[in-house]
Each structure stands twice: as C-alpha cells, then as structure tokens.
C-alpha cells in the first residue's frame, strides 16, 4: 500500500514537471542549454560508439531515443542520458564475446533489471557505495580507456586492441603513423587549452572540427567515422534467442550495476549544482531502465545519466526536463542535416578526445586526499582500480566493497558498554563501583554502537561479574542496529543473568532495533515481558528502590581535660 502511494505521488510530481517544461519563463533557457549540450555530446557519442566496437551512428541514435525516454520518465530533471565513457570497456568486451547483437540483448536485460530495482525501491542502496570504491572504479575505467584508445591515437593497426599488446611487443610501435599522432595530439591539446580561453566554448566540437578540416584540406588519408544514416532505424525486438543468454547474463548484471551507479552519481551531482527539485533515486532507476530497453529496441548502446553532459546542462542555464529533450532533438537534427560532414571525422581525432576523457577519470586528487585522511581507504581505492584493470568490473567493485566492509567492521568492533547505578531514587548517573562493596539493587547498562557479528563479544562479560544487581536495565538508545548474531548474544546473556538471579529490562530501543527484538522473541524473556520507551519508565516498573540504611555516625570524640585546666 505504501509503495502504491509512493509511485502515485511520483507520478503527480512528474506530470507537474511536464507543465513546467512549456513555461515561457524557462523555455528559452532550456532550448539554449539543450543545443549547447548537443554540441558537446555529438562528438562524444560518435567516439564512444566506435570505442565500443559498433558503428559511430549507433551512438547518436542511442542518445536520441534514450535521451527522450529518460528525460520524460527519470527522477532527475536535468540529468542528460546517453552513452558513457565508463561503459566503454565493458561494452567492448561484450561485443568481442557475443557480437553487436549480444550488446543489444545485454542492454535490454540490464534495463529490465534497472526497472525492477527501481520498483523494489532500492535505489538508495546503490548510493551507499563508499567514495573510495567509486573513485577507484572511475580511475580503473579511465586506465582501461587509455589502454584501449592510445593505439588508435597512435594510428596502429586495428588488430592491436590495447596498450598491453604494445607493452609485450614494443616493436609494434614501428607501425605508428605520425599523421594520426599529430591529429590525436591536436585534439587533446584543444581539449586542454580551449576551456582556458572560455568555458562557454564547445571544446570537443571545435577540436574535432579543426582536426577534420585540417585532414581534408591537406588530403591526408586515414580511417574516419564513415557513412552515417540520415534517420532513426525502425524499432525491433532484441534478438534474445540468437545469443547465449546464460553466458551473457553476468555481463548484463555488470551493465546494470555500472549504469545504475553512474546514473545515480550523475543525479546527485545535478542536485549539488542546480536549484531544481532533488532527484528521486528509485524513479531515476526506472527511467534509466526504460531508456536502456528502448535503446535496445533501436539497436542502440547501453546508457546512463552522464555527469559531464548533465553539468553542461546546468551550467548552460537549463531549468526543466525540456533541456535534455532539446538535446536529443538537436542531435537528431544534426544527424539528418550534417551526416556527410560527420562521416569525415578521423578516428585518431576521436581517440584523442577519449584519451582526454580517460585522463579526466583518473581520480588522483581524491587518492591524495584519502591518503592524508585514511590510508586504508586509499588502499581500497587502489585495490578497486587494480581489480578492474586486472580482472573485470564486477570483481573490482566486489574487492573494493568487501575491503570497505572489513574496514567498517574493524572500526566498529569495540562496543561501548558502561554500567551506572540507580540505587537512590532518580539517580542514574553514579558509577556502579562503590567503596563499601554492598550489592546494588538496580543498574543501568548503556550500550553504544551497533551490536553485530564483530562487536557482540562486548556483551559477554556482563553475566560474569561478581557484583550483579537484582535488576539490570539495558539502555539501547545508542544502538543503531543489531544483527542475528547480536540478537543471539543478547538472548544468551539474558538467560545467564536470569540463572544468576538478575532480571533484565530494555529501554529506549530505536524502532528498527525494537522490531528485530520482537521478531526474535526477546521481550518475552524480560522483566514485565515488554520494553520501555525511557529508562525512567523502566525503573518505575521495577517498583520502589529500597534505600540503603544510613551508616551509623561515629561517636563524638571528647578531649580529656588537661592538667593545666583541671
């Protein structure tokens, strides 16, 4: 019922945002911003498609159809959707293993899984991935892009796929083409220098246009993008039965994780930059999933919300969902009108653009910051990056997440357990230890920290003390969570305390902890068979706390009269 209400509210908010799209107050800014984003995205879409091992036109088709769907259905108003650099290595791997059809099927399956994740409302969980893992993940992808595109920028034969092959046989560098190196270096220099002149300049478009004009003007023969169809192909169902679904399923899972992480990170970045309503993670997953499924219907690439293009949309003055829609429509217009010009763009120029993107993905500043704050988190960064480069995306992310969890468990292994006395009416702050060694009637045990499989041993020494009171109140206000191991430990301690004549009460448990206690049957083991919202109510349930008898005052000391006064 709550889920139905949630999605009903999301639908109403989305329809309200549609009305905002056609407001005269925002439409001019949205159109201008959308065209600017299209100029930035066009060369990226071409380069990313070729890097994935498919025709360049597929990148533009993908951005057009998926961009409109995500803009209309996603949970972020200004997130721009399309092919992403982070997806290139995995997409290329899928194409090499299963062909272009396999990539289409994997994109469709990944989209369906994203929709399921969004409907299950677990979008926020994806955002819980530590920064060290995300930064290592992005840096690993940056290294893979550099390894895959430097051979293209050097003009090496297409059978030399990665820089690793050159490292094994340096003699392959003899096949490098100076013209390709010059073109790629010129684009790379343009990407570095043009933003310093003006951040409003479409650096990628100008750099590629300048390189293309130079190559055509001097008649240099080198591989280019090739013919681009003028229009969108007819949709058709993905060729699900023409590929090995069992073999492609792990890649589809990897695409799902990759696309979800980058899309939600992009939405978070938009929230930080723009004054638009904050994104909804679950709706964003649904929108991105639908965009991937529609992209597959048109034979397109997997897509994500892209941080770079989304930031351009914000910085260019975009206000509503109309900005990413205009971006997609403008791309379609360029495809219809300027296809012959785009076909002449050199592959080496696109490789130079991707080398720039790969360098930008390397989070060395973040690594230095982590190193100064937490050496272990810097190690998690490096381990994630190395896992992605040496193994694959899933292994790399899993290595990082497991290490981050180990670090968390290590830091949370000490459970704060403090025992205070409540001998006097209303007194809960005096320490239990008393100088006279008399037994205590009731004590309060304050527990701080999560009670889980690493920290549960902190409770075990409670029942072994010699000075146990008649009543023991567990104050759980400082316990954010308790797992099954913690519950079993708590039950065991209550039993042992009962065997030694100490009755246990529980107070101030949070709602999630209280629900777990009730499911485990803990309240039935307690004094009064219930828990209490405050320590005061728990103490009141015990009854009057007997006063200790006053200590007898020592006899007054008399002084014997001195001889002088006698």
Low-pLDDT stretches are 423-439, 556-566
Total count of strands: 7
The outline comes out as elongated
Query: How much of the polypeptide forms β-strand, as a percent range?
Result: 5-15%
Average predicted confidence as pLDDT: 83
The termini sit apart by: 98 Å
Radius of gyration: 33 Å
The percent of residues in helical segments reads 55-70%
Query: Structural class, from helix and strand content?
Result: mainly alpha
Number of spatially distinct domains: 2
> What is the helix/strand order?
HHHEHHHHHHHHEHHHHHHHEEEEHEHH
Largest sheet: 5 strands, mixed
Number of helices: 21
Cross-sheet strand order for the largest sheet: 4-3-5-6-7
Could you characterize what this model shows?
The chain is mainly alpha-helical and 566 residues long. The chain folds into two domains: 2-228 and 247-406, no CATH class; 416-542, STAS domain (Transcription Regulator spoIIAA, 2-Layer Sandwich). It is 59% helix and 6% strand. The strands form two sheets. A five-stranded mixed sheet has the order 4-3-5-6-7, sandwiched between helices. The chain is elongated.
């Amino acid at each position: 019922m709550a889920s139905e209400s949630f999605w009903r509210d999301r639908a109403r908010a989305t329809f309200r945002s549609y009305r905002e799209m056609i407001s005269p107050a925002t439409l001019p800014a949205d159109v201008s911003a959308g065209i600017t984003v299209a100029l930035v995205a066009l060369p990226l879409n071409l380069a990313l498609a070729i890097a994935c091992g498919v025709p360049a036109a597929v990148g533009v088709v993908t951005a057009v159809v998926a961009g409109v769907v995500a803009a209309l259905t996603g949970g972020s108003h200004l997130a721009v959707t399309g092919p992403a650099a982070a997806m290139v290595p995995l997409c290329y791997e899928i194409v090499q293993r299963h062909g272009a059809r396999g990539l289409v099927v994997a994109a469709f399956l990944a989209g369906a899984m994203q929709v399921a994740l969004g409907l299950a409302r677990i979008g926020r969980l994806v955002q819980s991935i530590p920064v060290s893992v995300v930064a290592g993940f992005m840096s690993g992808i940056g290294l893979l892009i550099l390894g895959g595109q430097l051979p293209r920028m050097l003009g090496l034969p297409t059978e030399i796929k990665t820089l690793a092959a050159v490292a094994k046989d340096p003699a392959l560098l003899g096949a490098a083409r100076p013209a390709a190196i010059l073109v790629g270096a010129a684009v790379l220099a343009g990407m570095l220098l043009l933003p310093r002149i003006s951040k409003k300049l479409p650096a990628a478009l100008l750099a590629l246009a300048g390189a293309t004009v130079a190559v055509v003007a001097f008649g240099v023969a080198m591989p280019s993008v090739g013919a681009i169809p003028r229009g969108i192909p007819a949709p058709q169902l993905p060729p699900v039965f023409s590929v090995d679904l069992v073999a492609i399923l792990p890649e589809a899972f990897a695409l799902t994780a990759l696309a979800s992480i980058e899309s939600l990170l992009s939405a978070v970045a938009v929230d930080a930059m723009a004054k638009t309503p904050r994104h909804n993670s679950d709706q964003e997953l649904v929108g991105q999933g639908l965009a991937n499924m529609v992209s597959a219907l048109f034979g397109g690439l997997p897509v994500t919300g892209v941080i770079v293009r989304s930031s351009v949309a914000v910085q260019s003055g975009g206000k509503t969902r109309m900005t990413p829609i205009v971006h997609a429509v403008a791309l379609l217009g360029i495809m219809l009108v300027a296809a012959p010009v785009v076909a002449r763009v050199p592959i080496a120029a696109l490789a130079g653009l991707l080398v720039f993107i790969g360098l930008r993905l390397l989070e060395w500043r973040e690594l230095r910051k982590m190193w100064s704050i937490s050496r272990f988190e810097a190690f998690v960064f490096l381990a994630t990056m190395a896992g992605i480069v040496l193994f694959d995306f899933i292994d790399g992310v899993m290595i990082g997440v497991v290490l981050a969890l180990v670090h968390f468990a290590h830091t949370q292994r000490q459970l704060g357990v403090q025992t205070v006395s409540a001998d006097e009416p209303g007194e809960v702050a005096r320490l239990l230890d008393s100088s006279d060694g008399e037994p205590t009637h009731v004590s309060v045990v304050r527990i701080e920290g999560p009670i889980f499989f690493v920290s549960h041993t902190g409770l075990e020494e409670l029942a072994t003390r010699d000075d146990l009171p008649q009543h023991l109140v567990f104050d759980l206000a400082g316990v954010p969570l308790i797992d099954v191991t913690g519950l079993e430990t708590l039950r065991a301690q209550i039993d042992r305390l009962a065997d030694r004549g100490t009755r246990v009460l529980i107070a101030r448990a949070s709602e999630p902890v209280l629900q777990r206690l009730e499911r485990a049957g803990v309240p039935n083991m307690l004094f009064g068979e219930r828990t209490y919202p405050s320590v005061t109510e728990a103490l009141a349930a015990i009854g009057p706390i007997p006063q200790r008898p006053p200590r007898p005052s020592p006899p007054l000391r008399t002084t014997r009269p001195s001889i002088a006064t006698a």
